[in-house]
């Protein structure tokens, strides 16, 4: 039997500019052929722009999961990262590896015809780098792995547990999201005919969302729709308002915030 990844390794997401290295145990196969490979794999190389699985790391090497995978953009970086981790035979210590460089993002913002400097000036928002390593902080409402920095993830679990002891159920809706994911939202909306200025009224520009940093999350409670202003009338929100600060969490976008972002009672950020 091939060795399964040790828990400490399995609970980390290794991030590179274009490709994420996922613990295989957390991904569901999309075909029977993939299922056989993934069952034997320690990690899966996953393309950030569209979530496709590129290749699996199995005991004897790499097995492609997508035609043409070996010509993928950013593959070399991803393989370097994999090699570095395999050499040390353990997962990197959480939150010690900093963030990824931003040069790729700047190029991609140009393709959107988005003037990054002008946007930053207008909103007062800063570019947010992606952590090089993320830790599993549990699962969200939709049973998807919830990735955050290790510090924010621990604080979130403590917050959630404390609420539960008082009968308040808090659910994660969404934690870490990559630049590529946010770019994908823009590309899809533009393909449907929306202008960038229009999209910016609802979505932060790629690179400027606090979700990129792995220390922010959207919080919900069972029976309530996600990311709706009505969340402010829930018991969950009242509890957060009273207690989240004790765990290092603060609401980023209160009413009339200086960034011109709509009121988001569901969006909370951890600061150490
Ligand atoms: Zn949010």
Question: Helices and strands in order, then pairings?
Answer:
Layout: H1 7-10, E1 12-15, E2 19-23, H2 32-40, E3 43-47, E4 53-58, E5 61-64, H3 75-88, H4 103-111, H5 116-123, E6 133-139, E7 145-148, H6 150-165, E8 171-174, H7 179-191, H8 196-199, E9 216-220, H9 235-243, E10 249-251, E11 267-270
The structure holds zinc ion.
Characterise the protein shown here:
The protein has 272 residues and is α+β, with helices and mostly antiparallel strands. It has 2 domains: 7-88, no CATH class; 103-270, Muramoyl-pentapeptide Carboxypeptidase, domain 2, CATH 3.30.1380.10. Helices cover 32% and strands 19% of the residues. It is built from 9 helices and 11 strands. The strands form 2 sheets. Strands 5-4-3-2-1-6-7 form a 7-stranded antiparallel β-sheet, sandwiched between helices. Strands 8-9-11-10 form a 4-stranded antiparallel β-sheet. Zinc ion binds at residues 211, 216, 218, 267.
